[in-house]
Amino acid sequence: MNETLRARPLRLDTAQPDFEQRFAQRLHWSADTDAAIEARVAEILADVRARGDAAVLDCTRRFDQLEVTSVAELELGPEVLRAAFEALPAAPREALQQAAARIRRYHEAQLEACGRGWEIVDEDGTRLGQKVTPLDRVGIYVPGGKAAYPSSVLMNAIPAHVAGVPEIVMVVPTPRGERNPLVLAAAHVAGVSRAFAIGGAQAVAALAYGTATIPRVDKITGPGNAYVAAAKRRVFGTVGIDMIAGPSEILVLADGSTPPQWVAMDLFSQAEHDELAQSILLCPDAAYLDAVQAAIDRLLPTLPRASIIAASLNGRGLLVRTRDMEEACALSNRIAPEHLEIASREPRRWEPLLRHAGAIFLGAYTSESLGDYCAGPNHVLPTSGTARFSSPLGVMDFQKRSSLIEVSAAGAQRLGRVASVLAHGEGLQAHARAAELRLEAGA
Amino acid sequence: MNETLRARPLRLDTAQPDFEQRFAQRLHWSADTDAAIEARVAEILADVRARGDAAVLDCTRRFDQLEVTSVAELELGPEVLRAAFEALPAAPREALQQAAARIRRYHEAQLEACGRGWEIVDEDGTRLGQKVTPLDRVGIYVPGGKAAYPSSVLMNAIPAHVAGVPEIVMVVPTPRGERNPLVLAAAHVAGVSRAFAIGGAQAVAALAYGTATIPRVDKITGPGNAYVAAAKRRVFGTVGIDMIAGPSEILVLADGSTPPQWVAMDLFSQAEHDELAQSILLCPDAAYLDAVQAAIDRLLPTLPRASIIAASLNGRGLLVRTRDMEEACALSNRIAPEHLEIASREPRRWEPLLRHAGAIFLGAYTSESLGDYCAGPNHVLPTSGTARFSSPLGVMDFQKRSSLIEVSAAGAQRLGRVASVLAHGEGLQAHARAAELRLEAGA
């Protein structure tokens, strides 16, 4: 085995006196932004806002080496998407359809459980409620090049579709004209309305501001590189955005009952994304950690992306022996991982102790990769500890709610007195008078 | 009447040939940020991050003219909040309690309707679901000075409380030591856990990063000035934030059946917030628009905040005659107003046509001010057209969701084949192998 292909995640024990310090150090990841990227992105956004299609064309020529004379030529029509789907061999075609069906079913259940309006009625006839409506038009960013993931197309477009969004606009860069047939086929399967072969900050700007050719959307979702992330952060407020993703992470809680090579492969499946991805294993059993390390050593050379996996595990990987499973759960809550596997015979015993995680994978058979592709729940999840306060992408991200308030004449008497007192207390007399006018009328 | 106290909202008719242009011009509001404020805020955030309490103290001395020697002295203990409540006269004390009870009830209904977990089970025993958990700790920013609104304390803290957040930390600046007793009393009523007399970007930084004295929170909500808004935007990602609010707006759809002076007062109640607030009336009946203008002329001099109201209506106010109510609804959807009153005899006839709004107030008795204080729904609403893609503050903003995935051995066979094909298609072989290992075992 090549020396560069050794993968040795940092090994810690919570009983070590310097555990806290070394643990914190290993978890540290800075989301600090790059000033040069920020400045470049600000320029591109301003240019697209001012010059529209012309700026998009210039950027696309320059960054994607695509020589076209109009943005219309960059549109990938429905027939292009359908043709990509129909040209696929049977296996990927059926896999896309099966994954899409399961993702659709999960998000339909989500819509049923949390995506509907409701109303309550007071004894005086006052009605209060909430109305839920889909967004009018959303944009989905799909990366091109090496990180071109058709599964991301399904995971972004299907919840929007289930939410009832009538128009879903996809953008995907095609550097030097290279199109990814699986991405285009996934767009067909997922019900994308329009697609454009553009990318980078210029694509985000086009979706946020609109151009003569590209329609302005209400929200932009989907992953991208540092330029795309900076652009999304800047247009937030003009449009909605999903989240700014950091490196991907997996945390495995193991009680020693899952085959070590399964856990090793699950750690690899995170590490193979990129060098900054983080794979963590927590287990009370030191011998099990040894067994997983042995499986890592044995399996690593068999994988095409071994060098990325090794870089990730050597730089950011972590195997921690904990006092017990309870301590492992507490550590996991501090990390708030994006993906959390409970590799245990009793996953439902530990699940209630786990408060912060994007997705929780229960039991030995639930590899993260099943969730990534086809179990049904969304694979767009909060990273870098943001599961403390944010949630997987879902149907609700493609809807918005409006409060409904209908106060009866009788209700206006009761509420008007309260509002009048509080409004005067805040020095807002017109607020008070508006309530009082209704009081007098209904008295 | 003083000449400066004339309030003449711009009068338009959709039949005018230049209507579109004048309408768009009047709606225009730029959310462009101020570079000097941005730079100052970046400095303050970095300083608090590096020096913690010492930086908070320096800023508080400098900006709030408060000479204290430790941040602990700035804590407003529960006994301070309770004393403020108990010292209130009966009328505001009861008004606060009644408002709080109604806000609590509405948000409990919201929790019941949309804030619970759920699960579905496949025929092969695979279980998929969603777990809902409250955030651990949230921060609520409450402005001091002229815009000190106790109602905002209720509207931010109560949904967090109902969501089950165990710790709610309030910050409120007290320039030169001036405390607003209603704000402190509202904090007592709303169940705030801890409160600090700090404000500005330094308070946002302290909540986002934590200091020796001030606990780090997971999310910061609540309104503030340009410095607070810039700080919230910058810490977004480190913590969650609610939204960046623009100027407040009301749009009234009138069919002519509501007393014109009621509508005039409702327009005032928005305009009195500040000069940039926007009040818009849409109505098919020109005579009714005349009657509202006459009511404006008559009522304006009777209001203490007449000069702010006049500045707002003269600068941004708008009375539009539409062809019919349908056209008025379509125009309203283009604006996506924060507050939308349907001043009509048939509010439920028009409500289904209205797709974008923060809150919809139905019928003549439902003045916006009732909703602002005590109807029950939240008064923290999306402004500046962001109701196209965002929602009122609510219980869900203080919870997060985690996907739950438990694949059975049988399920792993079915799903593993699909995942394997898609993972190979994306060039992620460790993902494929992780699925395949479970295939072999379960075969």
From TrEMBL, chains A, B:
Q: In which pathway does it act?
A: Amino-acid biosynthesis; L-histidine biosynthesis; L-histidine from 5-phospho-alpha-D-ribose 1-diphosphate: step 9/9
- Mind telling me which PROSITE patterns this protein's record contains? HISOL_DEHYDROGENASE (PS00611)
Q: Which Gene3D superfamilies match?
A: 1.20.5.1300, Nitrogenase molybdenum iron protein domain
GO molecular function ontology, one term from the record: zinc ion binding
Looking at its record, which EC class is this enzyme?
oxidoreductase
GO biological processes: L-histidine biosynthetic process
- Give the keywords, sorted: Amino-acid biosynthesis, Histidine biosynthesis, Metal-binding, NAD, Oxidoreductase, Zinc
Which reaction equations make up its catalytic activity?
Answer: L-histidinol + 2 NAD(+) + H2O = L-histidine + 2 NADH + 3 H(+)
Annotated substrate binding sites: S248, Q270, H273, H339, D372, E426, H431
Xref: InterPro entries: Ald_DH/histidinol_DH (IPR016161), Histidinol_DH_CS (IPR001692), Histidinol_DH_monofunct (IPR022695), Hstdl_DH (IPR012131)
Detail which positions bind Zn(2+): Q270, H273, D372, H431
Report the EC number(s), separated by commas if there are several: 1.1.1.23
What cellular-component terms does GO give this entry? cytosol
* Record: residues binding NAD(+): Y141, Q202, N225
- Catalytic residues (UniProt): E338 (proton acceptor), H339 (proton acceptor)
Relay the cofactor remark from the entry. Binds 1 zinc ion per subunit.
* Cofactor(s) needed for function: Zn(2+)
Q: What does this protein do?
A: Catalyzes the sequential NAD-dependent oxidations of L-histidinol to L-histidinaldehyde and then to L-histidine.
For this protein, the record's NCBIfam families field holds: hisD
Family in the record: Belongs to the histidinol dehydrogenase family.
Listed name of the protein: Histidinol dehydrogenase
